[in-house]
Description:
The complex is a heterodimer of chains A (308) and B (293). With 308 residues, chain A is mostly helical.
Amino acid sequence: xxxxxxxxxxxxxxxxxxxxxxxxxxxxxxxxxxxxxxxxxxxxxxxxxxxxxxxxxxxxxxxxxxxxxxxxxxxxxxxxxxxxxxxxxxxxxxxxxxxxxxxxxxxxxxxxxxxxxxxxxxxxxxxxxxxxxxxxxxxxxxxxxxxxxxxxxxxxxxxxxxxxxxxxxxxxxxxxxxxxxxxxxxxxxxxxxxxxxxxxxxxxxxxxxxxxxxxxxxxxxxxxxxxxxxxxxxxxxxxxxxxxxxxxxxxxxxxxxxxxxxxxxxxxxxxxxxxxxxxxxxxxxxxxxxxxxxxxxxxxxxxxxxxx
Amino acid sequence: xxxxxxxxxxxxxxxxxxxxxxxxxxxxxxxxxxxxxxxxxxxxxxxxxxxxxxxxxxxxxxxxxxxxxxxxxxxxxxxxxxxxxxxxxxxxxxxxxxxxxxxxxxxxxxxxxxxxxxxxxxxxxxxxxxxxxxxxxxxxxxxxxxxxxxxxxxxxxxxxxxxxxxxxxxxxxxxxxxxxxxxxxxxxxxxxxxxxxxxxxxxxxxxxxxxxxxxxxxxxxxxxxxxxxxxxxxxxxxxxxxxxxxxxxxxxxxxxxxxxxxxxxxxxxxxxxxxxxxxxxxxxxxxxxxxxx
Lengths: 308, 293
């Protein structure tokens, strides 16, 4: 309909002598270049997706026969028929739970300080900011070494316990929590703050009653993503003395532990093929948990987006 | 009443002002009103930059004082000094003094929160909290320590009635304040501001985001509440200043030729009728007759 009107329009209304053309002036060479560039982009995405799908498919083929309640209920064992990851699941819950307990309050508090109180012009605030950004890029194994020297051994000396692991993982994910929380707090419109302060509210009341409620969905999203990172961390735990074989669940923060990723590491490096299948099945369990967590994060983000 | 106000919008401002029958009698009455806020050589700096200089004016009880002037003349900046909202801007600094009932607002012993409890503010863009209508109005009393449900209920109703919003929202107090129309949102913000029973109400271009009918309602409301609350209003709209205010302060900008920076100055401050009919300063006359700004 619209197309017909435009085509009839150019006949009577064209001014005499005017050189008007709507034919594209893009040369064939440029058109080809455009196409090549687009194909290259598709190829890059395709490669990444194909790798991922291949890995997932391979894992599924290896592990699907072992997936089931048994793998969750059974304790680790050398005998494939009775092998499971129960102690790893409980260990992961303990470690990431403690990690969340430490990293979320500290991270959110840091974000509140940096966004609501810190003068950007002060050198120490800029130093804190710069450090947080850099820490986000430090490999987790480095945190493992730090934890081994200062927390597991050394002055604190907590040993290879749940508390040590949780604390170090908290350090690993802290920059992520801080950065995500800052973004969420910054997105709260300043009119809410000024509106609250103009009514005689203190800054603390304004943060508690206006800023935090408005920023909570964003903060929660960031925290969930950070905790799911802690869930999969393996390298620092290997250094910190997390066990790769343990047939009982941890009894407290001061107990020894194993985690799902550590058990996967152990099963996958076992020469028995059937235990490799257990490893694959454990990977599927871990991925499912991560998928659920990320799903919650996405739902939270969408549901509470932009209410003002 | 409200339609009447809308009609006068396009008339010459002189006409409206001369509707006051006996100006001189009113004059005597007004000057006897006690001052609520008085500034002395007030200047505001942002860092090293002086945004406004040497403002001397007095806001009197029960009056509506209007600040007019071109953009960037510092009228909002001065307004924000009256409840210390400039404190929130990093690098902002105030010299001279602002006195509330004789007490220096910026003295060490004066608390910004206490100042804002006595001097409320309504902003340019309606900014209801993402809470229910009830919780919006109850917010101020709550943060100031009022907890009892029955007392809160009473304050909420009284404030919403005071802001001429009660009849429109009484059946949906639990619904979000964000769901109201722009004009209703602004009246909600007025209700929220008067809920803590301030003595002064600062209004920073409260109608600039509203349509003419909503504007007329706010202006009517201002007339109704000015007995209880001393009002200072910043407006871009000269007719509005002429319609609603008792006194008018005209600000303009002065350009420093060396640094090319603009500083706001108070040109003239006086009774609105005089400011719009026979101002003392040539710049005021040029502005109010629409020859610049």
